[in-house]
Design a protein that fits this description.
The chain has 109 residues and is mostly beta strands. The chain has a single domain, classed as Protein Yojf, Chain: A (Distorted Sandwich). The chain is 13% helix and 61% strand. The chain is built from one helix and nine strands, in the order βαββββββββ. Strands 1, 2, 3, 4, 5, 6, 7, 8 and 9 form a nine-stranded antiparallel β-sheet that branches. It is globular.
Length: 109
């Protein structure tokens, strides 16, 4: 598994493309703060899409019965295996790390 960073200037187009492959994929969201235990935000839940708005600097994760927002992201990290995405980490300016882990790897469209 390899990790790569997605530049914020690429974020909008990258997440729009990825979002097309996410329809009803299962994932869980964990929120971690530096120096503390992680907090699971969700158990396995259906993901409907992911979007980054560079003008407002907000990343949206659209889930079944939940809209998770991350304001002022500092960096986007993507873990890939065989051209598929296993998980995404978004580090916010507040020091929290938001980890989106897919139940099965997602192959972008």
């Amino acid at each position: 598994m390899s990790m790569r960073k997605i530049d914020k200037s690429e974020g909008e187009s990258y997440f729009n493309t990825l979002s097309k492959a996410l329809q009803d994929k299962m994932a869980e969201i964990e929120i971690m703060a530096m120096g503390t235990m992680d907090k699971k935000q969700t158990n396995w839940i259906k993901i409907h899409g992911i979007s980054y708005n560079p003008t407002e600097d907000i990343l949206f994760i659209f889930c079944e019965n939940l809209e998770h927002r991350i304001k002022k992201a500092l960096e986007f990290k993507v873990w890939e295996t065989n051209n598929s995405i296993d998980k995404i980490e978004i580090v916010g300016s507040d020091g929290y790390s938001h980890l989106l882990t897919f139940k099965t790897p997602v192959k972008p469209a």
